Amino acid sequence: MTVFSELRMRPATAGSRGWDASNTARLAMAGVVIFTLLVGANLATPLYPLLQAELGLTSLDVSLAFSAYVLALMSTLVVAGHWSDHIGRRAALLLAVLAGLAGGFVFAHAESLAVLSAGRALQGIAVALATGASSAALRELLPERPEWASRFTLLASAGGVAAGPAIGGVLSLLPHPTSTPSVIHSVVLAALLVPLYLLRARPAIQPAQGPRPLRALAPRRPSVSHAARGAFWLAAAVGFLSFTVFGFCLSLAPGYFAPIVGVDSRPLIGVLAGLTLAASALSQLIGVRSRFAVPAGLALLGISVTLIAAAAAWATLWLLVAASLAAGVGQGIAFRTAFNDVAGKVEASRHAQIISTVYVITYLGSAVPVIGLGLAAAVYGLEATATGFLVLCGIAAGTLAAVALRRSRRSA
């Protein structure tokens, strides 16, 4: 099946050629694409202080540029979260890589906030197109092991988000630090187009019927079956809170952490900003089976983010590192357990749509609170605003932990 026939939602022709990859190769391809796109979307984290100086941006401008990415991502998930069910997983991933290439090019040549935001928006579209497709592909390739499919999804996603700031910090040491990371990343994305194009695609799980197949791509109103509704809302709430913390780490945290480090080291700042997300990614490898995993993880998250604020107030680097790692572990365990629960209860034919809807609410946590954080920082200063923000996140995590604990006891 060619890419063009997939996009037109036409059946494969007899004797179609291509690389008939093994399941292992297809698993790797699905994971590598979403990982690479998320690395590119987060290369900018340690570059924001440079961009602020170069383009004359404020903390609010940085928040708006970051939110342009998140809002575009959410909008695309709403509009196109189900596309891969109809055009096929391979075609959706190809479109995602092409959008990522366009976003990287625009971002690398940005000379104003508007152009910077446009590049970030294109990167958000790319990540959104790949999110539902990669998650659904992993589940289809591991039909007997849905929990591991969810683990691989979250490992690739959180790993890409965590690696982006660290890689961006290292690449920023090269000449032209605000553009070189995007250029190098674009080369990697272009290389991914080759195996994706050669791959022999498997048929879409919901081929469009009738003379007007494009109608299947129209936006749909999200709906969840009654059996999965409770799990859906818990996963969405945990995701929203998680990405509220992640959004802070990936936007304003570099400026907040800089006085603690005491040196102007972009690689080190990038590593610190990505610690929570790296710990979240690695926590996917921890086997925790308990009905109390969600409340315990949320409680650990709440305590840890409060300690991050304490570390900043006391200028204690070791406490910052320890609290950031603990926050990531708590978030990773809580979100994975809640995510696995809803993924296991949703029917396979609607997996991409429902998981995309979970991510819409999840990524909303990276947009609205971060914009509010930028507005508050302009009035009260970054240090006071970030400290108050982290304490509020700690209280919210504790409250959600209590709700999850009550739900766990009720289902016992």
Order of helices and strands: HHHHHHHHHHHHHHHH
Point out poorly predicted stretches. Answer: none
- Overall 3D shape: globular
Helix-and-strand structural type: mainly alpha
- In this structure, how is the largest beta sheet organized? none
From the alpha-carbon coordinates, what is the Rg to the nearest angstrom?
21 Å
Would you mind describing this structure in some detail?
Helix 2 runs antiparallel to helix 7 (113-141), helix 2 (23-41) crosses helix 8 and helix 6 (89-108) runs antiparallel to helix 9. This protein is globular. By secondary structure, the protein is an all-alpha fold. It has helices at 3-7, 23-41, 48-55, 59-80, 83-87, 89-108, 113-141, 146-171, 180-198, 226-251, 253-261, 266-282, 293-314, 317-345, 351-380, 382-410. The protein is built from 16 helices and no strands.
Which features would summarize this protein structure in a list?
412 residues
Brief overview, please?
The protein has 412 residues and is an all-alpha fold. It contains 16 helices and no strands. Helix content is 76%, strand content 0%.
List the helices and strands and how they pair.
Blueprint: H1 3-7, H2 23-41, H3 48-55, H4 59-80, H5 83-87, H6 89-108, H7 113-141, H8 146-171, H9 180-198, H10 226-251, H11 253-261, H12 266-282, H13 293-314, H14 317-345, H15 351-380, H16 382-410
Helix pairs in contact: 2-6, 2-7, 2-8, 2-9, 4-7, 4-15, 6-7, 6-9, 7-8, 7-15, 8-12, 8-14, 10-14, 10-15, 10-16, 11-12, 12-14, 13-14, 13-16, 15-16
